[in-house]
Amino acid sequence: MNPPNSELIKSTKHIEKLLLIIVVISTLAILKLLSYIFVPLVAASLLALVFMPMMRWFAKKNISNWLAMPLVIIILCALVGFFIFLVQISSREISSVDMQFWYNSLERINHLLVPLFNMLGFEHVSHHDISNYILNHAEVSSKLYSLLGTVLNVTQRTLIMLAMTLFYVILLLSGSINMRKIMQTTIFNRATPAARTFVILEKSISKFLIVKFLISLGTGIAVCVSCLAFNVQFPFFWGILTFVANFIQMFGSIASTTLLSLFALSQIDSTGTAFTLIALLIAIQIVFGSILEPIFMGKAFSINTITVLIMLMFWGYMWGVIGMILSVPITVVIKTVLSQSVKYKIVSDLMG
Questions:
Q1: Residue 76 near residue 166 (C-beta atoms within 8 A)
Q2: If exposure means fewest CB atoms within 10 Å of the residue's CB, which of 54, 60, 109, 188 is most exposed?
Q3: Who contacts 49 (Cβ-Cβ below 8 Å, separation ≥6)?
């Protein structure tokens, strides 16, 4: 005898759930394995949402894509070129000092480094020979060379991903990849909710990226000016580092402020002046990150701390540092899409 309909329905639901789990796991594995493809694609999708209103304005004015696209490319290339110019300035700052500068700086933070080395399990180091220890100890040297190799590798991959991102942006804005059609086919199965969600996403991501960029830029400029005011070496480097790190929610500002504070202690003779600068750096992060950013972002972008931490760890594991930078915009996209579904709106509310 055939089983009752209720048992068939229950069995079918179990099979659907199992297939869904398999699909999710397979998708995550593909995202991680093919990160060199999906990272530029996700970044390009976010950037394209910023330029979509401009492209629509050109369309209303009957301006052809052949004229609109070069303008967008010029804007993107100008931004990348300006960033490269700043990196070159900071590189010249760092290369202008000799090894004696680093030796003296290292000697002045002996009392901070010695406890750290002992905590990490290295053999006991006196306050007088820590510089020689770092330069000559095989284990430390190998770690430093490994770190340098990692930095060079990351730099090379970043340049390649920037080129791929620019290529994807051109495809998206020219209409070769129709994101609205993809959303309609894969998520909503209907044109109306897909179109409505796409418009909301466009406004949300555009506002988020513009506000985040301006807040990060303001934070970087404030840190650069503070370093100039207190005669701390490499002010442009610290400004750029703060600007980039600020895109990593929570951890980025903490890491950049900690590194700059440690460096300031090695540069400023007066302890009181050094701690004044450190207090100023903390105040800058609080004003820009904890006061101005929430005000300009608004309640629509309120994401609770637990969700931010989970997304940071997850996308950091999936795509490394770039994944951590993209984690919050991706979370905004997920939250916006879920909020447009009656079935999953409760999940969106829990994320807020």
A1: yes
A2: 60
A3: 201, 202, 205, 206, 209
